[in-house]
Each structure stands twice: as C-alpha cells, then as structure tokens.
Amino acid sequence: MANRGLGQFYPASSPLHALDPRAKIVATAVLVLGLFLVDSIAGFLVVGAALAALVAISGIPPGAFLRILRPVAFIVALTVMFQVLFSREGATLVEWGPLEVHSGGLRLGSFLALRILLLVSAAGLLTATTAPVALADGLEHLLSPLKRLRFPAHEVAMMMTIALRFIPTLGEEAEKITRAQAARGADFSEGGLLRRVRALIPVLVPLTVGAFRRADELADAMESRGYRGGEGRTRYRELRFRARDALALALTGLILLSGILA
Amino acid sequence: MRLELRDVFHVYAPGTPFEVEALRGVSVAVEPGEVLGIVGGTGSGKSTLVQHMNLLLTPASGEVLVDGVDARTVERGELRRRVGLVFQFPEAALFAPTVEEDVAFAPRRLGLDGGEVRTRVRDSLEALGAGHLAGRSPFALSGGEKRRVAVAGVLAMGPEVLVLDEPTAGLDPATRGDLLALILGLKAAGISVVLVSHDLDEVAEVADRVCAIERGVVRAVGTPAEVFYGAAEEDLAPATVQTVVALGEAQRGVGRPVRFRETLAALEALAEG
Ligand SMILES: Nc1ncnc2c1ncn2[C@@H]1O[C@H](COP(=O)(O)OP(=O)(O)OP(=O)(O)O)[C@@H](O)[C@H]1O
Ligand SMILES: [Mg+2]
Question: Closest by alpha carbon to B20, among B43, B2, B40?
Fold first, then answer.
C-alpha cells in the first residue's frame, strides 16, 4: 500500500551522497535530456551499465533501488504494449488474428521502455542520494540567475522544500487514515474502477482537510517566526563546488556521449 | 469472545535502514467481558500491538487467535466487525458531510438495511452523549465532540471487543469521564474492552487487568494492583518501574497533581483489607 520507493532519500555515506547537489541536479538533467538522443541498444546498454555502477557506488542495496522502478513498471508495460501492437512499421514478425507485431514497433516499444526506465532510475538516484533540503538548496542556486528576470527562485525552492518535507508526512497520514477506514469495514480492493475510486473518498476527504489544516499551521508558524520571503536572507548552509563535482559532471558527459555514439 | 496474541513479532520497513522491530514476541490475551488496560511509554509498541487484534497489521511471525482459531481464517470484514478498533486520534478519519452519515459508514458497509442502520447510528451516538450532533458537520465540532463521534462510528458495528487506542488523550475532563463510564457500561453489557492509555490512574480505575509493554516486549500482565503495586515494589524490571512512574508523571504535565502514588496507596490499602 505505502509507496516509500519513489523520491525517498536513502541516507548513506557514499561518494554520490557527498557530491554538491548542484552537480547532481545538472548531471541528472543532462542525462535525462541526453537519453532522448540515444537510439541504439548498445547506447542504452552503456548508459544502463553506468547507472548500475553508480547504484553500486551509492551504497543503496540493489533490491531497494529496484523498488523505485516498481511504480512505473505498469506504465512502461502499457506503453510498450501500445507501441508493439499499433505500430505497422518494418517487417511483420507475428500475425495473430487482428494483432500484428512489426519489427519497427518492437524496436520503438523497447527503446521507449528502456528510456523511461533509465530516466526514472537517474531521477531516483538523484533523490535517493540527496537530502531533500540539499536538493532544494541546489535548485535555488541553479535558478538564482533568473532572479534578475524577477523569477522567484527562493520562493520556488522554498515551496519545493516544503513539498518534499511534507510528502512523507502526507503519505504516512494517508496510510493511517486508510487503516482507520479499513477498521470500519472499508475495502479498497473490491469492485470495478468506479467502486474503487468511490472507496477512496473516505480517505481523500480527511487527507485534504488535514493537509489544509497543516498548511495553515505552517503559515502561522512561519509568520510568527518572522519569515518574510527571500529578500536579504542569509543562508545557514553554504554549498561548495569542489573538484570532484566537476569530475562527476565530466564523467556524466562522457557516459552520455558514448551512449549517443554507440 | 476471547482474543489472543501469541508470540507476535512485528517489523516496520523490513530490509531498509528505517527498519524498526516494533513488537518482539508479544503474548497477551483479552478474556471475554474484561477490560484490559495496555500501558507503556511513547513508541513502546502499543498502537502496533492493538492493530494486530483485527489484523490491520499482520505479524511477521507469531499468531492471532479468535476463540482459539487462527484469525486469518476468519473472514476479514467479519473480523473487523467483531473486533472494533478506534485509532489514536480517530477524529482524523471523519469524512462525511454530517455526523449521522459518518457514523452510518461502518454499519452500511456491513450491508444492514436502512432501518437497522438508523437504529445503530442513533444508539451509538446516544451512548456517547452525542445524539444532538447528528445533523452537524463533523468538521465543525469541538475536539471532544469529534472524538465522541469517531468512537460512535466504530461502536455502531456492534463489536464483541472494542479496542480504544488512547481514547482520552488531549480531552477535557467531562468527555474523558464519559468515555470511562462508557467503558464500564460496555463491560456490564458483556463487551470486552481494550484500553490503551498513558494515564495510569484511569487504567487503574476501569481495567480488570493491565499489560505493561516496553520497547516491544510485555513486561508485566496482571491486575492493576499486581502490576502497579508489584512495579512499585520493584519486583519487576526496574526499567518498567521507571517507565510506569515516569509515564504517569510526564502525562500530567506541569501544575497538575501527581495522583499515581495516591492510587498506589489506595491499591495497597485495598490489597491489605
Ligand atoms: N508506520 C510506521 N513505519 C515505521 N515505523 C513505525 C510505524 N509506526 C510505528 N513505528 C515505530 O514502531 C515503534 C512503535 O510504535 P507505536 O506507534 O506502536 O508506539 P506507541 O506505543 O503506540 O507510541 P505512542 O504512545 O506515542 O502512541 C516506534 O518506534 C515507532 O517509531
Ligand atoms: Mg500509539
């Protein structure tokens, strides 16, 4: 029931955890965008192997990491199925009644699946090795040049920190309410789609009410402590971009380039 | 009905760095018609323990028995009805537009007909002194009123065992008094009650037996006199004595008299004559 996989920080002391969050954010962004240029099995293998190596370095047990991928497995399976069944490109491989599988469809489908899986892995590795606060700090730094264009970099980063901070809380709350309703006989697994959605109402209503109450409390607490937005704020944690961060970025570029050229 | 937990272990988030062994071999029974108090410090595993009683949580090992048979063989909805569980801060799960509809949720899920549902809603709201709230929105009630409604929502299932997880936490004296009276009323009607509480006085007041739990292990089971008196005599693990006593004091906070020792004295007097 509880989805503790996606986006959760996994505390450990590894070289990846120690990197500057900015380096990790940029590297992930570059990798994610670059993945769309990779278009050969060999290329995906190169990137996949590199990511596997990074997971090994990160100190996260492979089993726990694979759990990150579980929530997207369904979406991946679905997109692949559509690609494979509805694309009429290339030679016909299988014909079965109205269903036809063509080589082009198979190729597109598997590439899409690999792309999504690698993309989610890269993003998952970022959030698993970077504490939420560090992530928000890094993002604020990266966005700060936009401040001159009146882009509210601090506020966006603050919102992200708060959201990240409250996602686990909200998840716990949802789990608790779900169990409380189950104790009153609610059943979330029976019936068709409509019935299941309706069964969620007793969970979603109190969850929303609670979230608004929490937001109110937080706003009061921030105001009473004199929070006044980003103007003239000094920061508690300073980020430092070191040689190893530059190295990490260079390495990412190299992996990607070999993936694209392979 | 007799409910028994036998050598129950429970692990949260197994196989991750967040792994917590919340119960470590807990054995305890709820005898038919008794009030069983469960006491222990914060994080000792009380809530985890009671959620095993209707299998909202399943044991990593060990078993839960309903009248001697494995609870997993009892149909799930049936088990949840027979063992009514009121969560800690149950008002967090109120959701319907009116109090009436909220309390009707569980009886409706049981598939009862409209008349029976209405009777049950009325009766359980009455039992909690909340009959006059029926038409109100549960979100616009006071804390104590919400708690009453939430308890009524479980009582309306007609449970054979009612499990209350810290039902009096953060309540005004009037609501707290009413809840304790309800517990004794249920007992008189032959319904077993499990009362989880930080308040040793109230446990001593209504419980037939007490189970003291500490870091997932049962430290003592017996009558309040045995457990609290024994604890005071330091016959039991000193850590439990500390938990039990500290708990009583911490719960009272600043400015309120510590009645635990008085309770002990009274229990002692009782035991002697
Ligand atoms: N959903 C959960 N995930 C992980 N750990 C949990 C979860 N729920 C409880 N725990 C942990 O299990 C242990 C026992 O928790 P439990 O809630 O049963 O204690 P409790 O005795 O009810 O405490 P309290 O008096 O504060 O309500 C604690 O260490 C707690 O941190
Ligand atoms: Mg608890």
Answer: B43
Q: Which of A128, A94, A102 is nearest to A24 (CA)?
A: A128
- Give how many domains chain A has, as a whole number: 1
Q: Looking at the domain assignment, is residue A162 inside a domain? A: no
C-beta of B168 in contact with ligand 1 (< 6 A): no
Residues of A with CB under 8 A from a CB of B: 4, 10-12, 61, 63-64, 173, 176-177, 179-187, 201-203, 205-206, 209-210
CB count within 10 Å of CB A96 equals 7
Token representation of residue B132: 């006059």
pLDDT band at B88 (very low <50, low <70, confident <90, very high): very high
Does the CB of B140 have a partner CB in chain A at under 8 Å? no
Query: Which residues from B are below 8 Å from A187, CB to CB?
Result: 77, 109
CB of B197 shorter than 6 A to ligand 1:
no
Give me the pLDDT at residue A48, please: 93
**How close is the Cα of A8 to the center of ligand 2, in Å?**
25
Instruction: Output the pTM of the full model.
Output: 0.72
Q: Whose CA is nearest to atom 9 of ligand 1?
A: B48
Question: Is the confidence metric ipTM above 0.85 for this complex?
Answer: no
What pLDDT, on a 0 to 100 scale, did the predictor assign at position B269? 53
- Which residue among B13, B90, B109 places its CB closest to the CB of A4? B13
Lowest mean pLDDT among A46-50, A218-222, B50-54, B246-250: B246-250
Number of cross-chain residue pairs from A and B with Cβ atoms under 8 Å apart: 67
CATH fold of B3-222: Rossmann fold (3.40.50)
Which of these, A148, A129, A153, A113, lies nearest to A27 by C-alpha position? A129
According to DSSP, residue A148 is labeled G
Q: Is A151 domain-assigned?
A: no
Average pLDDT over residues A12-17: 91
- Report whether B203 contacts B247 (CB < 8 A): no
Instruction: Indicate whether residue B14 lines ligand 1 (CB < 6 A).
Output: no
Q: What are the sequence ranges of the domains in chain B?
A: 3-222, 227-273
Buried b / exposed e over B5-18, threshold 16 CB at 10 Å, is beebebbeeeebee
Ligand 1 atom nearest residue B166's Cα: 27
The pLDDT of residue A159:
80
- Strand-strand pairing, B69-70 and B61-66: antiparallel
Predicted local confidence at residue A170, as pLDDT = 83
Q: Which residue has the tokens 């309306």?
A: B156
B48 lines ligand 1 (CB under 6 A): yes
**Closest approach of B178 to chain A, Cα-based (Å):** 22
pLDDT at B255 over 70: no
Cross-chain Cβ contact B56/A183 below 8 Å: yes
Output b/e per residue, B48-68; b: 16+ Cβ within 10 A. bbbbbbbbbbebeebebebee
Domain span at residue A10?
1-130+239-262
Q: How far apart are alpha carbons A182 and B77 in whole angstroms?
A: 9
Distance CA B9, CA B63 (A): 9
CB B12 within 8 A of CB B18: yes
Please give the structure tokens belonging to residue B14. 């197994």
